[in-house]
Each structure stands twice: as structure tokens, then as C-alpha cells.
Amino acid sequence: MVSVLVASNRGPVSYTLGDDGALSARRGGGGLVSGLSAVDSEDSLWVCAALGDGDREAVRRGIAEPGVRMLDIDPEVYADAYNGIANSVLWFLHHHLYAIPREPVFDAAFRRRWESYRAYNRAFAEALAAEAADGAAVLVQDYHLALVPGMLRELRPDLRIGHFTHTPWVSADYLRMAPDDVVDELLRGMLGADQLGFHTEEWAEHFLDCCEDRDLPQRRTRVRVWALGVDADELRALAHRPPVDDRLARLRDEIGETAATGERRRSIVRVDRTELSKNILRGLLAYRELLDTRPEWRDRVVHLASAYPSRQDLESYRAYTASVIELAGEINEAYGTPDWQPVLVSVEDDFVRSLAAYRLADVALVNPVRDGMNLVAKEIPVVSEEGCALVLSTGAGAHHELGADALTVDPFDVSRTAEALHEALSMPAPERAERTKRLAAAATALPPQQWFLDQLEALRGPA
Ligand code: G6P
After folding, report:
1. Which residue spans of the chain are classified as CATH 3.40.50.2000?
2. CA of residue 144 to ligand 1 center, whole Å
3. What atom in ligand 1 is closest to the CA of residue 86?
């Protein structure tokens, strides 16, 4: 029995099964990992799902990291809940991603998947109920587990239950597409919590709007904003390890120098999962327009795009990844020369390369159509060595904190984005340095440990 519990779909560790039957563990990073490290590990537990065969095998063999409990949920139920509902319905709603002429479809297949989503949430609620000490604090994460607060409250009314949403929250208008009973169940699930956290006021207000004029349970749930930031010391230490130094040297070589002048070429850096909401394609279109309308930048700039595959079980994500690679290829074909490749795309989940790219970034491009926070926009200014100009879309949650010192773009306005890239590349070095300093200060205002402890304290405080 422990007094602090965290629940999320993806846990802090994952296992892969080798051909020889051996399991190897891979530890992940991220805000929640640093956040939870702020509490006594003997008295805390992280409940997460076994995501693949390696994880499931680890559960079967009884292998577990201290302080982590993986739930081995039936693979079909899991796939329907994770791919079928969380990533194909809830993610699409919260990010307003549907291509309306064809989607969404709420049919019998949806209803079956929704059953699985319930079962998957129930598995978490039951595990948490079994592990939590009297009056323990439970911090449930994200849209995968929206029903857990309600279910857990029924099982254990003594617990303090918090939920944090890392994505945007859908607008009330957009949510009207979903069947009424499903919306009701979703909101009731969330409102089982004592406390709901969001990254921005905007998402919190959307949640409250969605609850308006509905017949919902009469109990008190506090809705609050904790804008997750980055830990500057930790990030800079990671970015200055020897493998990153080596990668940086190689990247500098790849970027090279302008043939005519011998000047070091500038870099426009972006790092994302190949995620439909990240707007990578319009970013590439803007870069193409920049090269087209501002020929003075040809041979003087390189676009370093890390777009590592994500959720490849979903056809729309596979197609998106392929389109990103294709468009980057077209740009290279159209503008490249024997010694200048305009776009360098990496489709590997290569954190070392990303950190090296952060360090040399002259310009950072972060242009999501809609994003809960977007930590890349916060990480690059902290790590960049010579100061970087940030081109940031209004769709990113981070825009609320960073907008004043970024070059703001509408995510759909490709021409404006091209112009902003030009302004960013042309920004005088002292101005860039000044802005970067202010961006880094805003980005580190609420580092992960504090973000976590503040939520915990609020949850344990008077109701
Ligand atoms: C977003 C979500 C997280 C999720 C991450 C990666 O940031 O808010 O909950 O873990 O994307 O997505 P994945 O489906 O690979 O876990």
C-alpha cells in the first residue's frame, strides 16, 4: 500500500524481447518521470499498461522495476481501447482532427470499442484501488484514462483523486459530434476527480464549457492550470554528454557551408513525433515557399526535421509519415544541388540527434495545429547555443507563455509561416539572444518536479 500513485497508459519503462528470449528494459524520460522522482520512491507507485509483447512477457515472468506496476490487459481489449478509442476518437476530438466528410463515424464497431475502453479504464481503477493506502493521492494522466476517476471514486471514496490532461481539451461545439451518452460518460468519469489539471486556461475553459447545461453529479471538482515547463539543469546536462557532442560535430559537417562565401549555413530545426496534429507538412510547404520566394536563402540554410514515427498501427499515421518523407524528397529534388541538401529528415526516435539539433538551432519551427503544451518549443531555447528565433503557432499551448518573444504564425497560413521563417533567419544576433533568454526563463518557470509537487499539494490540501 502506498500513499502516492500515478496512472498513465505509457509507463516509465518498456521491455523488448530478444531473439534469444532475453528481455531488455528501456527507460523513458519526460515530465512525469522527473516529476515523480520528487517523491519518496518507497511510498509511491506508477501503474501503467503493458504496451507490447515485451512488456507482457515481463509481467508474466514477474519482472518489474521497483515502484512500477504494469497491467497485462487482454491484447484485443487493449488495442481497441488504445488505438480504437483513445488515439482514433478522443485524440481526434481533442485536437479537432477529423476530416469531416468521412469522419467521425459512431456505429456498432465504435460501441464495441467503447466497451473495451471502459474495460481498460476499469482495469486501472481496480489496480489503483488495490494498491492505494487509506486516503492516498492518485494522479491519473491523460485522455486514455478519462473514466478512471469516476470508477475509482466508486471503489475507494476515501482517496484524493486528481487527473491531468496533457492534450488540449475539445471545444464544446466540436464535442457535440459525439453521441450524447458517450459525452456524458466521459465528463462524469473526469468529474469523479477532486481536481482536474490542464496546461492552459484555454483548455480548462473548454472543459468547463463542455460541462455547461448538462445534468452532471453535484460534487466539487477543482479545475486548475499547471503549465508544465522544463528543467534547465537536467536538460543542459543531457545535451552536453559526449555522444551529443559527437553527433553535433557530425551534424555541423552535414549542414556545411555556403559554396560562394564559405559561411556556415543556418539551420531551421523541428523535432516531432510524426503526429497528425504537429503540422509537419505545412511546415515543409512553408520552407519550400521560403526557398521559392526568397531565393537569397538557397544554399544558405538547411531544414533539420526530426519526425520520428508514432502510432504506426493507425493507417492515417503511416500515410502521414510517408507524406512527410515524400514532400521532403520533393523539396530536395527541386532545390538541392550537388553539395547542398535543403532538408535533412530523420525518421528515427533519436534523442541524441534531437539534442544536437537543439544546440545548433538558429531557428526553431514549432507550428502544431493544436497541441496541449508542446515541450519542444520550451526545450530548444534552453539548449540552443547561440540563441534561436522561435517560430511558434498559436495552436500550441506553449504559445500562451512564449508568444511574446516568438514569431507567431497561424498554423494554416503557409505564406505567413514562410515569411516568419525569413524574419527569424534575418533577426539580428543581439535581438535573438535577448529573446532566447526570455523564452528560456518562461520555459523553465514550472519545472516538472515543481509541477508535480504543486499538484500533489493542492490535491492533499483542503477540499
Ligand atoms: C502525447 C500524450 C501522451 C502520449 C504521447 C505519446 O503527448 O499526451 O499521453 O504518451 O503523446 O504518444 P503514444 O501514443 O506513443 O504514447
Report:
1. 2-73+117-228+448-460, 232-443
2. 9
3. 14
Q: Is the minimum distance from the CB of 275 to ligand 1 under 6 angstroms? A: no
CATH topology of domain 2-73+117-228+448-460: Rossmann fold (3.40.50)
CB 393 near ligand 1, within 6 Å: no
Distance CA 423, CA 390 (A): 10
Kindly state the average pLDDT of the residues 37-58: 94
**195 ligand 1 Cβ < 6 A:** no
pLDDT band at 29 (very low <50, low <70, confident <90, very high): confident
Cα(35) to ligand 1 centroid in Å equals: 16
Mutational pocket test of ligand 1: of 166, 170, 200, 373, the residue with most ligand atoms within 8 Å of the beta carbon:
166
Ligand 1 centroid–CA 258 distance in Å is 39
pTM comes to: 0.97
Model confidence pLDDT, tens digit, residues 394-450: 999 999 999 999 999 999 999 999 999 999 999 999 999 999 999 999 999 999 999
**Sign of torsion over alpha carbons 379, 97, 313, 10:** positive
Question: Is the beta carbon of 311 within 6 A of some atom in ligand 1?
Answer: yes
Q: What is the complex's ipTM, to 2 decimals?
A: 0.99
Tell which CATH classification among 1.10.3470.10, 3.40.50.2000, 3.40.1010.20, 3.30.470.10 matches the domain 232-443: 3.40.50.2000
Distance CA(448)–CA(361), nearest Å, equals: 24
